[in-house]
Request: fold
Amino acid sequence: MSLVTADPLPQRRSNRALSKLRANPAALLGLALVSFFLAVAILAPVLPLPGPAATDWAAVRKPPSAAHWLGTDEIGRDLLARMVWGAQASLLAGVVSVSIAVLLGVPLGVASGYLRGWTDAMISRITEALMAAPFLILAIALAAFLGPSLTNAMIAIGLSAMPVFIRLSRAQTMSVMTEDYVESAHAVGLGHAALIWRYVLPNIAAPILVQATLTIATAIIAEASLSFLGLGQQPPAPSWGSMLNVAKTFLDQAPCMAMWPGLAIFLVVLGFNLLGDGLLDALDPKES
Amino acid sequence: MTTQDIILEAAGVARHFTTARPLFGQPTVVRAVDGVSLKIRRGETFAIVGESGCGKSTLARLLARLIAPTDGSVHYEGRNISALSPREERALRRDLQFIFQDPYASLNPRMTVGALIEEPLRTHGIGTAPERRAKVADLLRKVGLTPQHADRYPHEFSGGQRQRIGIARALATGPKVVVGDEPVSALDVSIQAQVVNILGDLKAEFGLTLIIIAHDLAVVRHMSDRVAVMYLGQIVELAPAADLFDRPMHPYAAALIAAIPLPAVGARRSAVRLEGDLPNPIAPPSGCRFHTRCPHAIARCSTEAPQLTAAGPDRLVACHRAGELDLAGLSAMSGPRTPAAARRFALYRAATDAATRARPPEE
Reply:
């Protein structure tokens, strides 16, 4: 049967999001910064550096030199080594805590937006209660309650960041549920699980990815803050936050001790923010 | 009419939407569909027409059981489908399918065309994976696409192509009834004809019963056997397509027909023009709902609601003055066809009738 002649294959449009990201210099800078710090964090064990806890009493609070590229701290530890290992703590905290927030927040948000009614009312009220407390205050309270350690800090930050993901995925789910294609899924007779798996989740993934990238930046600052307050990474293990805490005592004598961790936090947060903004533009559903 | 083979029947079906529910006082209720009864015969193309907001899309969704009626019931093959368990409802989806109005919004943008067309088969556990792939390729060919299109995403296609993908998806499970909610109104006119023709051909090939919602009477005239005209949630006239267009009996149907553009130089028509907008369906007018805009309204129309009653062979009309009015149809306005045109139309009719007869007889 030949009703109409078969249409020629449409011109394949290559991955639009990727090429849009590639054309955005700010996003590329963000990607470069994030990649650099990620590489440093991953390669920390194999880099030819002294141990981050190895002390050298002959070199205390020294400025950068050939032996210690970034200088040394108050008990003669190599700042470069501590920065590199600190990057591992910071990025781990950022990624793990945001993973906790996404893995808990998205299912709750989707359930809320999909089921509506009573479930929605319950989840939304709890979310609002959590959001009433400022992010960092909530994280500090949780970390203090759980006890000071990097793991507990990550859990505390993850739980504090969760409400944002509940809200976002709830709103996105509600918007997807009004789309014609969801009605077409009903018309086909699709069950709830398949509808959520094939229709809801893929269509809400982009904004959640953007939010996650931006939240990693916030989580890194939160980890640094908790470590600064002594509620995160415990000495002698290095962390940018705890390095800043010690450095504030020696600002006059050894400004390098404060400068490097401050600069690193600034750059990595900037990197994640630029990357997140770039993803937001690249994944804009209105143009796909 | 009862001797005919009825596949789908609506009995006094109504759907009300609550738009506002204040803390005190009466909630605001929109009567989108308000007491519609109709019988769809096996194998026919049944059109439902009316202007925007008359409830025709809601009626389509009620007939396809995408929404549940507030009142009344819908029967498929004699079985009440208004109150089904989720399991029974899913089983019904194999037989009763829906084509959506907007091909840009009704295909999941994150699924490939192949996955979209295969989904109904997968959901209902039809065939093995290779069988389903073969079926998808077959369906793609039937709607004028190629099997290679299966790996593409919907956004890579034009509107007409997407609508054909939607049609392939609706036909995947081999349904018996397909409800189309304005299946071509979102498309360019040149593409409309193509999609209408595909629907017609597939209807003959699959032995479908088609229910088409439309506001474009030219499309309806081309493809349907019987037409129901809706106004404010109710049917005002139901007649075979040819009769309706030749001699409408309800003033609203006549006004709709008078609004069809005539493709003839210097064509004149009686000026049956409707004034004003569709009244608010939250508070429909008393008596006949059309009396506020009807050029033939009399005192009785504003107090007493006319019932849908038999008016001639196979015709129903809801108008107090149906017997006395002589309303102009399409042929009265366009004049006789040229002999050449008449010959072509006769040939076309013969071909369509032959195609219909090739299917199992309906009567």
Observations:
- DSSP finds ten helices and no strands in chain A.
- The CA atoms of residues 111 and 169 of chain A lie 9 Å apart.
